[in-house]
Design goal:
The protein is an alpha+beta fold and 324 residues long. A hairpin with a 2-residue loop joins strand 12 and strand 13. Helix 5 packs antiparallel against helix 7. The longest helix is centred in the N-terminal third of the chain and has 48 residues. It is elongated. It starts with a helix and ends with a strand. The N terminus is likely disordered.
Length: 324
């Protein structure tokens, strides 16, 4: 009887582990009682082993939960990247014509933020909203949006074509900002001077010294270290604009009236087409052209006129059309 009481009485200050062991031992067949010293050592060994086993299970459980959590976080991160990919910059222009070597070819598309350097070549762009932008040699330009650009150095020409754009085109340089008001103009810039020449329409120039407007045949200039905007006159045709004519957009004459060709020629050269008499003007309206001629505007004029019953002569700013 005393043996059974010793096996079943709970130890003083027993832990949960001890009570669990006691319940297990209650179902065991009684064995001879070992010496007291051996009993205590066996008890400590059993408790240590039990704690080691249950502790490993807890650690493994925690490690499993942590791994599952990290996997969930990775999944969320991956989904976030897939749901919100980087937004591509909008396309703002395409290459229309190339003269020389500039590292681009007709049809190339340019996105907002694109920087262009022409080197020794020349380049004509078609803005996405319809305007023409032409770059001379040694020009560095950034297309900041469909209606704005930053000119670091060089020479650019802007043509709003047949109608003013929905938003004025703006060219920003170190010494000022040029805004189109439905026009044709060039901007030349370097570190020392900013120059604007107007062939048609009007532009505004804003600088540290104030604001000035320019019309047909006006040229505005401002120098570094001076707040004054200088004004003088400029021809709207001739050598000053020769590089612009080389980059003129193509005009397919096939099936077009001669009068339409004259309209294109006037816009690309700054010259005025006049008629010697009513008969010559009537022929221009009624003549429909056939074939194809690829050339710069003045060379193209000579080729086209050879296909008609009309003749022409250059008289300074004017081109006089007469009957043969």
């Amino acid at each position: 009887m005393s043996h059974e009481r010793e096996q079943r009485d709970p130890p003083a200050n027993g832990s949960d582990a001890e009570r669990t062991l006691e319940r297990l031992f209650a179902h065991a067949t009684p064995r001879p009682i070992p010496p007291a010293a051996d009993t205590e050592e066996i008890r400590r060994a059993l408790y240590a082993e039990w704690d080691a086993i249950t502790g490993r299970r807890q650690r493994l459980r925690r490690a499993g939960l942590l791994a599952a959590g990290l996997a969930a976080i990775s999944s969320v991160t991956w989904l976030t990247v897939r749901v919100a990919p980087p937004v591509a910059a909008p396309l703002v222009a395409s290459v229309e014509r190339v003269q020389g070597v500039v590292g681009m070819q007709p049809g190339d598309e340019l996105a907002a933020g694109a920087t262009i350097f022409t080197g020794s070549g020349e380049l004509a762009l078609r803005i996405a909203s319809g305007e023409s932008l032409r770059l001379g040699p040694q020009t560095r330009l950034e297309l900041t949006s469909v209606s704005s650009a930053e000119l670091t150095a060089g020479l650019v020409y802007f043509d709003s074509e047949s109608a003013p754009p929905a938003a004025p085109f703006t060219i920003t340089a170190a010494l000022g900002v040029v805004r189109d008001i439905g026009t044709q103009f060039f901007v030349r810039a370097d570190g020392e001077q900013l120059e604007v020449g107007v062939r048609d329409g009007r532009v505004s120039l804003t600088s540290a010294g104030g604001e000035a407007a320019a019309g047909v045949g006006d040229r505005l200039a401002i120098s570094a270290g001076s707040a004054d905007i200088r004004r003088d006159s400029i021809a709207t045709f001739g050598d000053e604009w020769a590089w612009v004519e080389r980059l003129a957009p193509p005009f397919d004459i096939d099936g077009r009236r001669l009068s339409e060709f004259f309209d294109w020629f006037e816009r690309q050269t700054g010259r005025t087409v006049a008629f010697a008499d009513a008969a010559a003007e009537r022929i221009a309206r009624e003549t429909v052209l056939n074939g194809s001629v690829e050339a710069e505007p003045q060379a193209k004029l000579a080729a086209v006129m050879s296909l008609t019953d009309l003749d022409y002569s250059l008289q300074g700013e004017r081109v006089l059309i007469s009957s043969r």
